[in-house]
């Protein structure tokens, strides 16, 4: 779409986001350098569809999920991270599309939960995230930084908590310095997890002002409207209209009335990746059909593993 500067400004105005952020004024605009969002040809749903062409679910999953633009997650499973990121962003660049990448390798990831793991030490993480930024370089990209890492600060204490803040601040600095055409967004939890003023304080601690903005609802189910209300409250507490994006991959039916977050029933695909709609962008960040862990509808399916059954539940909203 090679969105012009005036169109981007108009879209931001409609979302109530003024270009007041220092990062927004200074960084390159990846929307202007690309023609739409990148569809990962090797996403878990796409690979499953290719491998199971005769399955009755292959058609619906291909149409509703595998051919839609979404994020690719990178972590300690990605091999040489600079090479992996460079290869992915190069493919998107050749296609003139904008890729969305998720950095998910903070030490103590998920506080020992279903997605436990991460870099083995603070220095290992510094090396990893620095190489991640090097892999993008000047290519246009969107990067989501460390889902849940700030919202889960309360599960850490002492040195571990200090280390996490320092590492997230270091990560922000790497993208600000090394990836001039990348919009990086620090994860800010979801609409009901952490009070807006507290999250704003945490975002300031890790230098959100040095990157483009923050991201909400990653792998969660709150509606875009709920997330937008929370995002604007966080922005007000930050003291400037910080751009934010919302993960809309599974929020079509909202969060529901229960507190279940792990492969719950009656959730549905949300709006596909697009500009506006309340936040700066709505993006499919969680890969629809990838399990949250061995729980709920995904009992026996490890976190991050694709399940056609889970995908079909999201397509049907049941």
UniProtKB/TrEMBL annotation:
Write down the SUPFAM superfamilies for this protein, in alphabetical order.
Answer: Glycosyl hydrolases family 6, cellulases
Its Enzyme Commission number(s) read 3.2.1.-
Say which domain of life the source belongs to: Bacteria
Q: Which region ranges are annotated with the description Disordered?
A: 254-275
Q: Where is the active site?
A: 148 (proton donor), 292 (proton acceptor)
Which residues does UniProt assign to the signal peptide?
Answer: 1-25
Q: Which GO terms describe its molecular function?
A: hydrolase activity, hydrolyzing O-glycosyl compounds
Q: Has UniProt tagged this entry with the keyword GTP-binding?
A: no
Q: Which residues bind substrate?
A: 73, 193, 220, 261, 286
What are the BP-aspect GO terms?
A: cellulose catabolic process
Report keywords, A-Z. Carbohydrate metabolism, Cellulose degradation, Disulfide bond, Glycosidase, Hydrolase, Polysaccharide degradation, Signal
- Similarity comment: Belongs to the glycosyl hydrolase family 6.
Name of the protein in its database record: Glucanase
């Amino acid at each position: 779409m090679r969105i012009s500067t005036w169109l981007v400004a108009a879209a931001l105005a409609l979302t109530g986001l003024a270009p007041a952020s220092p990062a927004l004024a200074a960084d390159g605009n990846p929307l202007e350098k690309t023609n739409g969002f990148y569809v990962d040809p090797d996403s878990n749903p796409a690979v499953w569809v290719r491998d199971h062409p005769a399955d009755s679910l292959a058609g619906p999953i291909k149409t509703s999920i595998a051919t839609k633009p979404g994020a690719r997650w990178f972590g300690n499973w990605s091999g040489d991270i600079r090479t992996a990121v460079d290869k992915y962003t190069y493919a998107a660049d050749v296609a003139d599309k904008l890729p969305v990448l998720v950095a998910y390798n903070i030490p103590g990831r998920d506080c020992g939960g279903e997605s436990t793991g991460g870099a083995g030490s603070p220095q290992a993480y510094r090396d990893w995230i620095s190489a991640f930024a090097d892999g993008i370089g000047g290519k246009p990209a969107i990067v989501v930084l460390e889902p849940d890492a700030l919202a889960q600060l309360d599960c850490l204490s002492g040195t571990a908590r200090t280390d996490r803040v320092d590492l997230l601040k270091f990560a922000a600095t790497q993208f600000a310095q090394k990836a001039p055409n990348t919009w990086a967004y620090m994860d800010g939890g979801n609409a009901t997890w952490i009070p807006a003023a507290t999250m704003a304080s945490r975002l300031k601690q890790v230098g959100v002002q040095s990157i483009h903005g923050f991201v909400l609802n990653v792998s969660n189910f709150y509606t875009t409207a709920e997330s937008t209300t929370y995002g604007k409250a966080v922005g007000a507490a930050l003291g400037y209209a910080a751009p934010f994006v919302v993960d809309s991959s599974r929020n079509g039916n909202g969060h529901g009335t229960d507190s279940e977050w792990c492969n719950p029933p009656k959730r549905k695909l949300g709006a596909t990746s697009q500009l506006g709609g309340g936040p700066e962008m709505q993006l499919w960040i969680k890969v629809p059909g990838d399990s949250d862990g061995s729980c709920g509808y995904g009992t026996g399916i490890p976190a991050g593993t694709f399940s056609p059954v889970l995908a079909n539940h999201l397509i049907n909203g049941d």
